Amino acid sequence: MKIIEGGVTSPIGFKAADCAAGIKYQGRTDMAMVYSEVPCECAGTFTSNQVKAACVLWDQKIVNSGDKMQAVVVNSGIANACTGKEGFDACEATAKAVEKELSVPFNTVAVASTGVIGMQLPVDKLVAGVEAMSKTLSHDKEAGTKASQAIMTTDTINKEYAVTFEVSGKTVTVGGMSKGSGMIHPNMCTMLGFVTTDLAIDKKLMQEALSAVIKDTFNMITVDGDTSTNDTLLLMANGLAGNDVITEKGEDYDKFYEALFTVCRFLARRMAGDGEGASKLFEAKIVNAKSKDDARTLARAIVGSNLSKAAIFGCDANFGRFLCAMGYSGAEFDQNDVELFFESKAGKLQVFDHGNPLDFDEDFAVKIMKEDEVMVIADMHEGNEEATAFGCDLTYDYVKINADYRS
């Protein structure tokens, strides 16, 4: 597998475009489109929130129907959630605009939205945006990058990644883009994520791979404990790489799984580090746990704790906060088995050893925690399972951003 520059337009046959539709923001792009020259097999995962945006319901219908998918239209600024029939009608109008412009069936067009909940989308602006983007679709890397920028809300950086690998003597590419900065505590996937590939693969295997990959990538993010109404992750495969269709698990499937995992993990870490107001990526790694579920539960509890996040922001090696979070996580363990460490590019420091606090170098601890990426490691000494969760520190700016989000 090889990492390459690019994103959703990196695989053969995929194009992207963006535009400034003026849906909510002024002076910036706020709509994006991803389009395949041929229909794609598709897979998806969606929010577990009982309150689902109209676009989530629209996309679930496409994925679950077994139909192909050929395009995705995304807007930022307004979430199209809690909008009743009018919100669903906006999805249909957007899809039918793509049908008119690109001659693809409207029921193969996915839609996604992100932004303020409870506001209606201006359908005229959506349709005008589709018309504009249909004329500027491009294979260029830059087109994919601009699309990833157009779907940002409170994000400070765009998020895209791509890799290649070999299957049946053919070069296959997987590319992706995502957005997400706040209201992130997913139980199914991420805020918004779109992954493209030119691989030929059976739809059921695609869905199985995606559902498995998210468990240790997007499902391990937590920024603020809020699960969005709009969480959507879509995977499109158009088969234009020309490989023999993957219809069963084996070496070729494993290569695809690794590539998909790599792209999703990069995007997940990128999102966590760009949490609203964040100054650093905060990771928790659990090793030697009794079970995979315990490892995931413990890791997410650590990065999800506001007290832990505040300690990371303040560069305070107050290890009791991390142990406390582990203790109320629901996973059972003996604190007398646990070792706790802080680690970053500046070094690694043990602060807790089998039930006992250690007399550690506070200055060295501060040095470790001042880095842009900080990890807390807990060795449970109870098994051989591990998991890593991705979060960020809790800063003053988080409250400022969310106190005036609608304005």
From TrEMBL:
Q: Which reaction does it catalyse?
A: N(2)-acetyl-L-ornithine + L-glutamate = N-acetyl-L-glutamate + L-ornithine; L-glutamate + acetyl-CoA = N-acetyl-L-glutamate + CoA + H(+)
Q: In which pathway does it act?
A: Amino-acid biosynthesis; L-arginine biosynthesis; L-ornithine and N-acetyl-L-glutamate from L-glutamate and N(2)-acetyl-L-ornithine (cyclic): step 1/1; Amino-acid biosynthesis; L-arginine biosynthesis; N(2)-acetyl-L-ornithine from L-glutamate: step 1/4
Q: Hey, where's the site called Involved in the stabilization of negative charge on the oxyanion by the formation of the oxyanion hole on this chain? A: 114-115
Q: Where does this chain mainly localize?
A: cytoplasm
Q: Which residues form the active site?
A: 190
Location comes to: Cytoplasm
A GO MF term: L-glutamate N-acetyltransferase activity, acting on acetyl-L-ornithine as donor
Q: Which Pfam families match?
A: ArgJ (PF01960)
A GO CC term attached to the entry: cytoplasm
Which spans of this chain does the record mark as coiled coil? none
Q: Binding of substrate: at which residues? A: 153, 179, 190, 276, 402, 407
Mind listing the UniProt keywords for this protein, alphabetically? Acyltransferase, Amino-acid biosynthesis, Arginine biosynthesis, Autocatalytic cleavage, Cytoplasm, Multifunctional enzyme, Transferase
Assembly and partners? Heterotetramer of two alpha and two beta chains.
Function field: Catalyzes two activities which are involved in the cyclic version of arginine biosynthesis: the synthesis of N-acetylglutamate from glutamate and acetyl-CoA as the acetyl donor, and of ornithine by transacetylation between N(2)-acetylornithine and glutamate.
Q: What is this protein called?
A: Arginine biosynthesis bifunctional protein ArgJ
Q: Which organism is it from?
A: Butyrivibrio fibrisolvens DSM 3071
